[in-house]
Write a structure and sequence with these properties.
The complex is a heterodimer.
Chain A lengths: L1 E12 L8 H8 L8 E13 L11 H16 L2 E2 H4 L10 H16 L4 E11 L2 E6 L6
Parallel strand pairs in A: 1-3
Antiparallel strand pairs in A: 1-2, 2-4, 4-5
Helix pairs in contact in A: 2-4
Chain B lengths: L4 E13 L8 H8 L8 E12 L11 H16 L2 E2 H4 L10 H15 L5 E10 L2 E6 L2
Parallel strand pairs in B: 1-3
Antiparallel strand pairs in B: 1-2, 2-4, 4-5
The chains are: A alpha+beta, B alpha+beta.
Chain lengths: 140, 138
C-alpha cells in the first residue's frame, strides 16, 4: 500500500558552482544561475510504502506524518534562502535533484517503522518540472 | 547503489485529429469512435510529460534543462503543435490518430533524436483531463 502526503514550502535559491565562470554557470543552470537568486513555491509529495496495521487500519499515522514533514522540511526550508540558511546548500548546489535527495535523507530515518518505509520523494520546482527520488524509478 | 532519480518535464501542444479507419464502414467507424469520428475533425490541448532517469552528475543534475527542452521542442512540439495530425503529420497516413498511437509516435520521435546521457523512461500524454496514456520503458 502506498500513501502520499503533500506539503509546500516557498524558498529562494541560486544554482551556481563557484569554481566556474558566469558563462559556464549560465550554460549549465540557465536562468537558475542569475546571481542574486530567485524563488519558487516548491510542492512536495512524500510517498510511504507499508502494510496496513490490522488494528488501526492505517499504513502510517497521518498526523504524525504531517508533523514529521513540518519538522524535517517545511519549518527549516519555508521562507528561507536555501544557499544561505539551509545546510548543506551552502556547499551543495540546490538543484531540484539535490533538494529531493536532501529531503529523502531527512525523512527516511524519521518515517522508518516495522511496517512502513519511505518510498518516494517528489519535488515540484514549478508546475512543469518535478523530480522523483526513490521508488518511482525502481525497476529502471 | 544509488537511489533512482527521475526528472519529469511538462510540455503542451494543440492539434486537430479525427479517428477513422478505412478498415471499417462509415457506420462501424461512427459506432466505434463516436464523437471522435465527426467528419470535420476536432482538437485538443495535449499535455506531454517526458521523464528521464539517470545518475545525478557532479553539477547536481540528471539532465541539463536547456538540452532537455531543446530535444523535446525540436523532435516533438515543432512537429505537432498547431497541426492537423491526420493531414500534416505523415506518420498518421494510414494510421489512426488515437492518443495511444500518438504516444508511440512521440516515443519514436524522441528515441530517434535522443542525444542526452539520461535515459528516456516515460512518455505520458493527456488528451483531456480525463484521458491519459503512458508509455514506459521496460
Amino acid at each position: 500500500m502506498l500513501l502520499t502526503r503533500k506539503a509546500e514550502f516557498s524558498a529562494s535559491h541560486v544554482c551556481v558552482n563557484p569554481a566556474w565562470s558566469p558563462e559556464r554557470n549560465q550554460e549549465v543552470y540557465g536562468n537558475n544561475a542569475n546571481p542574486n537568486g530567485h524563488g519558487h513555491n516548491y510542492l512536495l509529495e512524500v510517498t510511504v510504502e507499508g502494510d496496513t496495521d490490522p488494528v488501526t487500519g492505517m499504513v502510517f499515522d497521518l498526523r504524525e506524518l504531517k508533523e514529521i514533514l513540518n519538522r524535517e522540511v517545511v519549518d527549516p526550508m519555508d521562507h528561507r534562502y536555501l544557499n544561505r540558511e539551509v545546510p548543506p546548500f551552502d556547499r551543495v548546489v540546490p538543484t531540484t535533484e539535490n533538494i529531493a535527495a536532501e529531503i529523502w535523507h531527512r525523512l527516511e530515518p524519521a518515517v522508518r517503522r516495522p511496517n512502513a518505509r519511505l518510498y518516494n520523494v517528489r519535488v515540484y520546482e514549478t508546475a512543469d518540472l518535478f523530480v522523483d527520488y526513490g521508488g518511482a524509478g525502481a525497476g529502471h | 547503489m544509488g537511489v533512482p532519480v527521475q526528472v519529469t518535464s511538462r510540455y503542451r501542444f494543440a492539434a486537430a485529429h479525427r479517428l477513422d479507419t478505412p478498415a471499417l464502414s462509415p457506420e462501424a467507424n461512427r459506432k466505434l469512435y463516436g464523437k471522435c469520428n465527426n467528419p470535420f475533425g476536432h482538437g485538443h490541448d495535449y499535455i506531454l510529460d517526458v521523464t528521464v532517469d539517470g545518475p545525478v552528475d557532479g553539477d547536481g543534475l540528471v539532465v541539463n534543462r536547456a538540452a532537455f527542452d531543446a530535444v523535446v521542442r525540436s523532435a516533438v512540439i515543432d512537429k505537432l503543435d498547431h497541426k492537423n495530425l491526420n493531414v500534416d503529420v505523415a506518420e498518421f497516413t494510414g494510421v489512426v490518430a488515437t492518443t495511444e498511437n500518438l504516444a508511440m509516435l512521440v516515443r519514436d520521435y524522441l528515441t530517434a533524436a535522443w542525444t542526452l546521457p539520461a535515459k528516456l523512461v516515460r512518455v505520458r500524454i493527456s488528451e483531456t483531463q480525463r484521458n491519459t496514456f503512458v508509455w514506459e520503458a521496460q
